[in-house]
Specification:
Bound molecules: phosphoenolpyruvate
Largest sheet: 8 strands, parallel, barrel
CATH topology: TIM Barrel
CATH class: Alpha Beta
Number of helices: 12
Number of strands: 8
Order of helices and strands: EHEHEHEHHEHHHEHHEHEH
CATH architecture: Alpha-Beta Barrel
Mean pLDDT: 97
């Protein structure tokens, strides 16, 4: 299976932006803007907007995701949200291991793995984020770091569950900075991720998994990034908050 046979996935990560009221207004703009898309369109919103987003996106081609999930099913974890709480709302996707969670909320490869397993067990589709920071890139350890993040995140994930996993390669130095990886850098690391998936699950699984690039993707650079053979979509932060910008990226992904 080559790129043409994998469905591109464009996912917006709204981060801590938009009240539920503002989310409703943005979704009203997004629905017509992406309705003809020939790719999977996902918006990952703050927890407080999920119910509104699910309600508004029902019957459209927009799928709704959360930005994080806790690994326990329930209990004394004040402030946390379980996978069952998300599926009960009608949420289909969740992001795990975003670099902002790793950087500001002490997420580790191990907790990313636990969250990923809990989400998959509940039937969610998971966008697992991996990526190096600037120091790690300058030290030349990008590939080994991303390989190890990927391996740990997928520990205990069955071959069947892998069908519900998307991996997002997000160089930390490119997130929210306006600095984008070159298309060659994005391709190189996405190919390395596909290789490690192949080592773990076999060639067919590697060919089937969708791997996104994320990091300041925008209408100006998306076509070149999305044209890379191992880049199957994008995880979009800033540009996902503007319907006109997000829809250009969705259109570029639809063209392949
Ligand atoms: C992100 O939040 O995953 C991201 C890639 O953000 P931005 O597009 O703003 O760099």
């Amino acid at each position: 299976m080559d790129k043409r046979n994998r469905k591109a996935v464009i996912a917006g990560n709204w981060k801590m932006n938009k009240t539920a009221t503002e989310a409703a207004a943005l979704i009203d703009q997004l629905i017509p803007a992406v309705q003809g898309a020939d790719c999977e369109v996902v918006i990952c919103t703050p927890f407080t907007s999920l119910a509104t987003a699910v309600e508004k996106c029902r019957g459209t081609n927009i799928h709704v995701g959360a930005e994080n999930v806790h690994f326990e099913k329930s209990g004394a974890f004040t402030g946390e949200i379980s996978a069952d709480m998300l599926t009960d709302l009608g949420v289909e996707y969740v992001i795990t291991g975003h670099s902002e969670r790793r950087q500001y909320f002490a997420e580790t490869d191990e907790t990313v793995n636990k969250r990923t397993l809990a989400a998959l067990a509940a039937g969610l589709k998971v966008i697992v984020c991996v990526g190096e920071n600037l120091t790690q890139r300058e030290q030349g350890i990008t590939e080994e770091l991303v390989r190890s993040q990927t391996k740990i995140a997928l520990l205990g994930v069955s071959a069947e569950q892998l069908a519900n996993v998307i991996i997002a390669y997000e160089p930390v130095w490119a997130i929210g900075t306006g600095r984008t990886a070159t298309s060659a850098q994005a391709q190189e690391v996405c190919a390395a991720i596909r290789k490690v998936v192949g080592e773990l699950y076999g060639e067919e699984a590697a060919k089937g998994i969708s791997i996104q690039y994320g990091g300041s993707m925008n209408p100006g650079n998306c076509a070149e990034l999305l044209a890379q053979p191992d880049v199957d979509g994008g995880l979009i932060g800033g540009a996902s908050l503007k319907a006109d910008q997000f829809s250009v990226i969705v259109e570029a992904a639809s063209k392949g």
